[in-house]
Amino acid sequence: MSDAPDAAAAPEPPPAARPPIDSLLLAATRIATFEHQRGLTNASGFFFERDGRLYLVTSRHVLIDKPSKHFPNRIEIEVHTRADDLAKSVRISLLLYEDGQSCWRQGTDGSGEIDVAMLELDRDALPPSALLYAFTPDHLQHLDDPVEVGSSALIVGFPLGFHDTLHHLPVVRQSVIASAFGLRFQGLGYFLTDARTHRGTSGAPVVRRDLQAAPDAPLPWKLLGVHSARLDMAGRDLVQDESLGLNCAWYANMLMTLSEA
């Protein structure tokens, strides 16, 4: 029998540090569009994960918009790398075309194109210390679950590209649900929000607090939709009448269709 002392048990690794902010702010990312090296526009996006695959979600018109002749061939996003120092981040460039084919997924329904796009991310291209939170199918607000009209919601994004440039974090705008949630407004796949929004907010997540989430849930929010654009009336008198201040938000359940294998 050996007299050697028993080997000491290997210490367990310390738990991953959690940032001292709401995880919702790390689920959204700023998007910059480019034509090669020429900067074009700023927009918003967020992360979605399903079956171990990670996606970037934004508005389709951020990636291509024929009416405005907007044809970027790549985008850049920002990803944090240290929970204890949110000033540390890296910019990641993503090509939008490969072998002449678009890399993103988009969808249509009986009423036409849906203004939502999803781009799969290569986890190996992210830094090993990448700090981000992703919505999952469990975060999606079911359309048959009651959401009262007038309920409060948040739009998390980068209006006009504005954000905390030191910590690379988005800003949050208050909104309310302005149409019957679960119904397709005028037969289209979106609902309305009442909020002050600007260019650059396109692709932002529309969320509300999940009151049923566990106290230690990493992302205690329900994802209602994807902010698209302001809605206005074509016949509005530009001199006498103010803008309606209403916005389109495409139902988030479309992400299940776009993320199918």
Automatic annotation (TrEMBL):
InterPro entries assigned to the protein according to its UniProt record, in alphabetical order: Peptidase_S1_PA (IPR009003)
Family matches, as SUPFAM superfamilies: Trypsin-like serine proteases
Regions of compositional bias (Low complexity) in chain numbering: 1-10
Superkingdom of the organism of origin: Bacteria
Region annotated Disordered, chain positions: 1-20
Name used for this protein in its record: Trypsin
Source species of the chain: Pseudaquabacterium pictum
